[in-house]
Specification:
Layout (H helix, E strand, L loop, with lengths): L1 E4 L3 E4 L6 E4 L10 H10 L25 E4 L2 E10 L2 E6 L7 E7 L4 E3 L7
Antiparallel strand pairs: 1-2, 3-7, 4-5, 4-8, 5-6, 6-7
Length: 119
């Protein structure tokens, strides 16, 4: 995989660590990205965070491990920076009803701090 930084520099990123780590966690709804992220971040179900858009109520922050990338319709937890805007992510309901650890771009997402006060 090649990541372009501001259109000028290219970096090769090793994403061979991509893997399926589970399915839909027990107690989570059919669309479970928000629920899975809450379990990863807080270690428990937080029903109001089942809706991905509700994660946008947390304060914006710079990307860092443990922060969350959110948009209306999907959310995932940042685990490790790989280069450019690409992060290894804990991504519940990432396709085929699977939870994956895989490389994700932050393009189109807002990074929030789930430990900050929600508005």
């Amino acid at each position: 995989m090649t990541v372009t930084n501001a259109g000028t520099a290219a970096t090769t990123v090793d994403v061979s660590g991509a893997r399926i780590v589970g399915g839909r966690p027990a107690g989570c709804p059919r669309s479970f990205c928000g629920c899975g992220a809450a379990l990863r971040v807080f270690g428990r179900h937080v029903p109001q965070l089942n809706l991905a858009a509700n994660w946008l109520r947390f304060p914006r922050t710079a990307p860092a491990p443990g922060m969350v990338a959110a948009r209306r319709g999907h959310v995932f937890v940042l685990e490790q920076h790989l280069g450019g805007d690409v992060w290894m992510a804990y991504d519940a309901n990432s396709g085929g009803h699977a939870t994956r650890m895989h490389a994700r771009s932050l393009r189109g997402y807002t990074v929030v701090n789930p430990r900050g006060a929600a508005t």
